[in-house]
Amino acid sequence: MTMIDKKCILACIDGSELSDAVIEQAIWLAKNSQFPIKFLHTIEHSHLSEHVHHEGTLTPNMTENLLNELSDEERTESKHLIADGKTILNNAVQRAEQAGLTNIIAKQRHGTLSEVLQDLEVEFEIVVLGATGQDHNGDKKGLGSQLEEAIRVTHQPIIIVKKPFVAPRNLMLAYNGSPTSKKAIEIIKKDVFSTQSFNIHIISVQKNIEDAQRLVDEVEMALSSVNCILKTTALKGDPVEQLTQYQQEHNIDLTMMGAFSHGKIHGFMFGSFTTQMLLDGSSNFFLLR
Predict the structure, then answer these.
(1) Residue 79, pLDDT above cutoff 90
(2) Does 61 share its domain with 85?
(3) Do the beta carbons of residue 223 and residue 230 sit within 8 Å?
(4) Domain end residue (candidates: 122, 139, 165)
(5) Can you point out the beta strands (E) in 79-195?
(6) Does the pTM of the predicted model rise above 0.70?
(7) pLDDT given for residue 194 in this prediction
(8) DSSP letters for 88-112
(9) CATH number for position 221
(10) Domain limits at 184?
């Protein structure tokens, strides 16, 4: 299989505060998985003219001048965005080269992040995203405005980066027996990222402790042949509260779990477990769809 045919680790970068961590996370994944690495920068045009026209009625000549003005401003904006994006990509490529990688691709695309991810889905094995983007620079709370839609449109695994990169040592699998959480077992068994370097914490939170224990026993049996340290814990109570508390107490670096198993309407009416975990959690996340 050639480099072009082989799927890659896709790192989406925008020059925001978390971009460095996204780059480092993707480099670590590429080195451990032997997948090529591809850096992606998207350009979404949100043009607003600097000149506001307050006239209630525009004459034909005024309308033509306004359209020409907008066109010129859009062209200028586009040139600046392209140039800034190339600088961001060149920096990422240099860092990957310094880390010893050779299979490196840089790509710049126009459109929203979710649109581009849909177009490129057949090209990547795992996508790495920052939890916040340029619109959240300096704001440590909240999630990026495009994050949920980007997660929902792809069926490939997604790593959400929330903090500066540290090579992960403690991985937590939040397991509830769903099809997406079963995918996590298969990924761990494939040794995609050298699981021998991990302490793997298998956690299940259910309404009663018996169901939780049954589920963690199920995972422990499925992973009995994996070369890593396994720790199983059965808990009862509120899943978000219990899982985020466990993250903090055990210095969890990466949490694996299913994402957005319900539709948008359900999330609007009852709240989204995935969104709440991303907001409250202290680790990076490995999400499965």
Answers:
(1) no
(2) yes
(3) yes
(4) 165
(5) 104-110, 124-130, 158-161, 170-174
(6) yes
(7) 62
(8) HHHHHHHHHHHTT---EEEEEEES-
(9) 3.40.50.620
(10) 166-289
